Structures are given as C-alpha cells and as structure tokens.
Amino acid sequence: MVDVRVPRWWMGGVASAAAACFTQFLDTIKIHQQTQQDVHLSIVRLTMNVIKHDGFLSLNHGLTAAVLRQLTYSTTRFAVYETAKEYIAKPGEEVAFYEKIGIAAAGGIIGGFIGTPADLINVRMQNDIKLPVAKRRNYRHAFDGIFRVYKEEGFRHLFSGASTATGRSVLMTIGQLSFYDQFKTVLLNRNYADNLTTHFLASLAAGWVATTLTQPIDVIKTRTMNARPGEFKNMWHIITYTAKLGPAGFFKGYILRFTRLAPHTVLTFVFYEQLRLSFGIVRQS
Fold it and tell me: Which residues have a Cβ under 8 Å from the Cβ of 272 and sit 6 or more positions away?
C-alpha cells in the first residue's frame, strides 16, 4: 500500500477557470470565425478587424462569463467524473476505459446543462463587438447578462441551446477527461513519472481528441446561442444554414479551435495536477 493524492471536488473548476484567463482571446476569435458566413476571411484578418474596431482588450471580451462557465460547467463535470471513478474503482485495479467514457459522459450531461446560462452569455458577449453599435446587447458582466436575459427574454431562454451545449459537453468531457486519464495511464505504465512532462503529453493528446469530437456540434451551438429570436425556425434550419458552406462549414475554425483548446486543455490539467499534488486528499492505494 502506498499513499496517493486524489483531487478534491472543486479543483477541476478552479483549474479550468484559471486556464480560461489565458486562452479567452482565442475563443473570441473562434466565435467570430464560426458566426461569419464569409469563409474567405482569414484568422489574421478577423483578429486585426477586432483590434482595429474595438481595441486590443476587446479580445478578452466576455472573460467574466468564461470564468463563470468554467466554475459551473467544469466544476460539475470534474466532480462527477472523479467521484464516480473513485466509487467504482476496485482496490489495486485500474478503472476500465469504457467505464471512464461512461462516467465522463454522465459528468458531461450534468455539467453541460448547469453551465448553459453562463455559456450563453459568454457567446453573446464575445460576439457583441462584431455587431453594429445599435444592435449590441452591451452586457456589463456575466451576472448582468444573466439577469437581463431572464428579465427581457424569460427564464427558459437562459437555457437556449442547452441540447447542443449538453451534447458538446458530453463529447468534450469524454475527449478531455477520459482520454487524458487513459493517455496518462499508458504513459505511467511505460515508466513515465507522474510529473509535468507526463501531464503535458497526455493533455495535449486529449486536447486533439476533444477538438475533433466537438467541432461540428460546437459550430451549431455557437450559431444557436448567438441567434436572435426568429432568426432560425428550428435546429434543422441552423444545420442546413451551416451546410450551405459544405462539409467544411461544420469544421469552420478547426485549426483555431485546436490552437485554443489544446493550450486550454494543457493548462487545465497542469493546474489541476499541481492542485492535486499540493492539496489533494491523501489515500492509500
């Protein structure tokens, strides 16, 4: 029997929120690329347009919503995943990969739904700067946005896009948590130490898997949350609208998405592992 440190329930949310502070500007550009219909506008052009019209700091527009989203969405999915994994784990044995996928999916469902209001405000705040001044919503911060949606559009609209957000959350949690866990296990079994190098390699691979799994639904989710009342008839209308761009339309922003998601995934798990190693609960294994 050896002593090991297991994470506490809050560590995933704190680590993800910290990572968002470093990667929010990439998410802003991704939102702009996904919601434009002109496929010829490059990432560099989009970035320069944002800076030119609204200033450099506008790239971090919506940061409060991004942090709130991680504190709700990621706290929940990490807590569910680690709690369930610890519950089903047998002494001295690894949890099977298919079991990791199952509990990651469960965590993704719960976390995705809980995080939908903050995700909605995050998308709107990031996209606000590309709209004409007269049409901007001008949310001051995440809580102002949530209150105004509740007041102006009703409680149900806070969960607009919840189905796509939850579906994306399931795939994201599988790609990040279960695959990170599996990649890390493989590396440790190959005599890698439980250190920064292992955490970096496993999280980078998990970031690639998560990007590939979630990109199509992420594009649909972004359009759904950013839509104004009456703009689209239903989900099928959004899908066909996106399909006009061809198959590539569902993977619009893939490179930028990976460029954003890979650092976010790496930073999340690096912070998460450091929190675990420093403040985790000591258990015997």
Answer: 7, 11, 12, 15, 78
Q: How far apart are CA 53 and CA 56, in angstroms?
A: 9
Report the amino acid identity of residue 203. S
**Residue among 144, 108, 107, 145 at smallest CA distance from 123:** 145
Per-residue pLDDT of 81-116, as tens digits, reads: 999 998 998 877 889 999 999 999 999 999 999 999
Nearest to 117 by CA among 75, 87, 147: 147
- In degrees rounded to 5, what are phi and psi of residue 4? -130, 155
pLDDT, tens digit, 9 for 90 and up, residues 218-265? 888 777 767 777 778 788 888 888 888 787 788 877 887 888 899 999
Q: What is the DSSP string of 189-212?
A: HTT--SSHHHHHHHHHHHHHHHHH
